[in-house]
Design goal:
It is a single chain. By secondary structure, the chain is α/β, with parallel strands linked by helices. It has a single domain, classed as Alpha-Beta Barrel (TIM Barrel), CATH 3.20.20. The protein is 33% helix and 12% strand. The protein has 13 helices and 8 strands. Helix 1 packs parallel to helix 2. The longest helix is centred in the middle third of the chain and has 20 residues. The chain is globular, with a radius of gyration of 19 Å. It starts with 21 loop residues before the first strand and ends in a 12-residue tail after the last helix.
């Protein structure tokens, strides 16, 4: 495919079509108010990327329960008190011409007690001295995801993206290493996937017919099994339970090293699944126009822009103007990011990423 194919419309199962093939990935930035309300820095960031030409813009990981917090100054959607700021964010994205999505997040066993988080492990053996969630507590977390999606709809967002990656609660429940439960949410793959499926089904029932549902999936670490994740993904795609699958890969070109799919690209393991009307995209070092177009050739329907979108807030517009566009080389100086419009809070967060901000740059 050519670079021009990146700017073709992409219909989704529900709601409006994507105007092109670019999504802004959900990006943690640690710049919200202490109570989880959207800050002026959140609004400024969203206004910048809303004008950047993306077809769909995600918020950062947004807490569905106060106790599910993982990051300092994390955005929240667990209270109606958050609706005012979220509505402003949704409005800004809509005025920029893109679709909008809140990424729904609960940290599970990785919740941070220093921030008021309440670690919520699937198994009693995961964290010393911390009991496993009871079945009723699992149901409460499920319902919190659904209630958060309803708030997102009330705030004017086009949809939500369910965070099922990186060992957070839904990913944790999927893992045979982190989930040794004996109730309906543990044991077989069907049971370990039950929480994710019930969240998807509950949101579809609770929200309107045009409301869009995405699912972010990672396939590495935390005891996750690639073969199992492929099987459950095939089930979800066959039932058309979501509008799009977001594959959160560390590198979109990575190759499977062992197991049944050894030698194949991680991406192809999932793009080879019959997807019916569900769309599939990937993140992972997509830093240039050429690489974005290659992902379409490799079976993706869209691409997710993360690091490249932090370096240049209007990545899609840059690609449209220059089919040979490539992102600035990292690490960059803090001043480079500052001049581009990033807040000091966001820059501080990026200093924690390997090789992104030059050490000691001010």
């Amino acid at each position: 495919m050519s670079i021009a194919d990146l700017f073709k419309q992409l219909p989704l199962l529900h709601g409006a079509a994507m105007r092109n093939r670019f999504m802004l990935a959900p990006l943690t930035n640690q710049q919200s108010e202490l109570d989880g309300s959207a800050s002026k820095f959140d609004l400024d960031w969203i206004e910048q990327v809303a004008g950047g030409g993306y077809a769909l813009v995600h918020t950062c990981a947004t807490t569905v329960e106060a106790g599910g917090i993982a990051f300092a100054r994390q955005l929240g959607i667990h209270s109606d008190a958050h609706l005012a700021g979220l509505t402003q964010m949704a409005t800004a994205i809509r005025e920029g011409g893109g679709l909008s999505s809140v990424q729904l997040h609960h940290a599970g066993h990785r919740a941070n007690p220093r921030l008021g988080g309440i670690p919520a492990p699937a198994s009693a053996s995961t964290l010393p001295g911390i009991p496993a969630l009871t079945t009723n507590e699992v149901v409460r977390i499920r319902d919190s995801f659904i209630a958060a999606a309803q708030r997102a709809e009330r705030a004017g967002f086009d949809g939500v993206a369910i965070h099922g990656a990186f060992g957070w609660v839904l990913s944790e429940f999927m893992s045979p290493l982190l989930n040794d439960r004996t109730d309906a949410y543990g044991g077989s793959l069907e049971n370990r996937a039950r929480l994710t499926l019930e969240v998807m089904e509950g949101i579809r029932r609770a929200c309107g017919p045009d409301f869009q549902i995405g699912w972010r999936l990672s396939v590495e670490r935390y005891g996750l099994r690639l073969e199992e994740l492929r099987d459950i993904t095939a089930h979800i795609l066959d039932r058309e339970m979501i509008d799009y699958l977001d594959l959160a890969l560390w590198d979109s070109a990575q190759v499977v090293r062992e197991g049944a799919f050894a030698g194949k690209t991680m991406l192809s393991v999932f793009t080879d699944i019959p997807r019916k009307g569900v769309r599939i995209g990937a993140a992972g070092r997509v830093m240039s126009a050429v690489r974005a177009a290659q992902l379409l050739d490799e079976g993706c329907d869209f691409v997710l822009i993360g690091r490249a979108g932090i370096l240049q807030r209007d990545f899609p517009r840059q690609v449209m103007a220059n089919p040979a566009y490539d992102s600035p080389r990292t690490p960059v100086t803090a001043q480079f990011l500052r001049e581009g419009g990033l807040s000091e809070q966001f820059i501080h967060h990026m200093r924690g990423w390997p090789d992104f901000v030059m050490p000691d740059s001010v």
